[in-house]
């Protein structure tokens, strides 16, 4: 299965772009949501998280998000250790999921495609980009968050320049109608690439 990774900064429009691909019949894997699901449902992941961070990681059978968040807050090493447990489980799940899909290609949505070196699990990468003031306004409106809170989340992500440099393609999200058109064009190219990929294997 031909796999496409879509990434972008906070409020850039990743989910919006993925929704447009989905409307065109393309299966989308939301890695953030699936990571949360797997942390609750995967027995082996639960066990390794408990081994690494203690039994308090789960309370009454539920993931203790507040406790885990406090473990990794301001501690890059702890964050890396948690990611080292969660990311392989998510990538295994994505690979198995991708093989079950029937669309011409599949999309992996990830806010940390490059930061977590997930790009090696996909064949093509797309960065969704928007001017910073727009991203800020969208994220504040969507989350009801203050400017500083959004800016500090932005500061943890790689810059747009680096994202543009590392991604195969960049998609600019300002106007929704233009974005829809860009997604449709991109979908045609990806279907063509996927058909050639199918011929190769
Ligand atoms: P995050 O990483 O923070 O989850 P994201 O990159 O997935 O964000 P979206 O959730 O797609 O971004 O978009 C952020 C908000 O901006 C949403 O409320 C969405 O509806 C809105 N939005 C996105 N693109 C546009 C657009 N072109 N015009 C108007 N609103 C938009």
Helix and strand arrangement:
Layout: E1 3-8, H1 14-23, E2 27-30, H2 31-41, H3 43-53, E3 58-59, E4 62-63, H4 65-72, H5 76-100, E5 106-109, E6 124-129, H6 132-143, H7 147-155, H8 160-166, E7 169-172, H9 176-200
Parallel strand pairs: 1-5, 1-6, 2-5, 6-7
Antiparallel strand pairs: 3-4
Helix pairs in contact: 2-3, 2-5, 3-5
The structure holds adenosine-5'-triphosphate.
Explain this structure.
With 201 residues, this protein is of the alpha/beta class. It folds into 2 domains: 1-26 and 105-195, Rossmann fold, CATH 3.40.50; 34-102, no CATH class. The protein has 9 helices and 7 strands, in the order E-H-E-H-H-E-E-H-H-E-E-H-H-H-E-H. It has helices spanning 14-23, 31-41, 43-53, 65-72, 76-100, 132-143, 147-155, 160-166, 176-200; strands at residues 3-8, 27-30, 58-59, 62-63, 106-109, 124-129, 169-172. The strands form 2 sheets. Strands 2-5-1-6-7 form a 5-stranded parallel β-sheet, with helices on both faces. A two-stranded antiparallel sheet has the order 3-4. A hairpin with a 2-residue loop joins strand 3 (58-59) and strand 4. The mean pLDDT is 93.
Q: What is the overall number of helices? A: 9
Structural Rg: 18 Å
SSE string: EHEHHEEHHEEHHHEH
Number of domains in the coordinates?
Answer: 2
The CATH superfamily of the largest domain bears the name P-loop containing nucleotide triphosphate hydrolases
Indicate the CATH class of the largest domain.
Alpha Beta
How much of the sequence lies in strands comes to: 5-15%
Strand count, sense and closure of the main sheet?
5 strands, parallel
Distance between the termini: 10 Å
**How would the global form be characterised?**
globular
Question: Can you give the helix content as a percent range?
Answer: 55-70%
Structural class, please?
Answer: alpha/beta
């Amino acid at each position: 299965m031909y796999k496409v990774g879509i990434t972008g900064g906070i409020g850039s429009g990743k989910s919006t772009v993925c929704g447009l691909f989905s409307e065109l019949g393309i299966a989308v894997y939301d890695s953030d949501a699936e990571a949360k699901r797997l942390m609750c449902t995967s027995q082996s992941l639960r066990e390794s998280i408990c081994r690494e961070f203690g039994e308090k990681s789960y309370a009454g059978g539920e993931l203790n998000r507040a406790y885990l968040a406090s473990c990794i807050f301001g501690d890059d090493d702890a964050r890396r250790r948690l990611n080292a447990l969660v990311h392989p489980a998510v990538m295994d799940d994505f690979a198995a999921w991708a093989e079950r899909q029937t669309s011409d290609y599949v999309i992996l949505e990830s806010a940390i495609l490059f930061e977590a070196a997930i790009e090696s699990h996909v064949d093509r990468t797309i960065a969704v980009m928007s001017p910073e003031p727009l991203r800020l306004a969208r994220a504040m409106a969507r989350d009801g968050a203050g400017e500083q809170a959004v800016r500090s989340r932005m500061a943890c992500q790689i810059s747009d320049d680096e994202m543009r440099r590392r991604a195969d393609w960049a998609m600019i999200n300002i106007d929704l109608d233009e974005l829809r058109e860009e997604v449709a064009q991109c979908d045609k190219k990806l279907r063509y690439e996927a058909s050639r990929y199918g011929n190769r294997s």
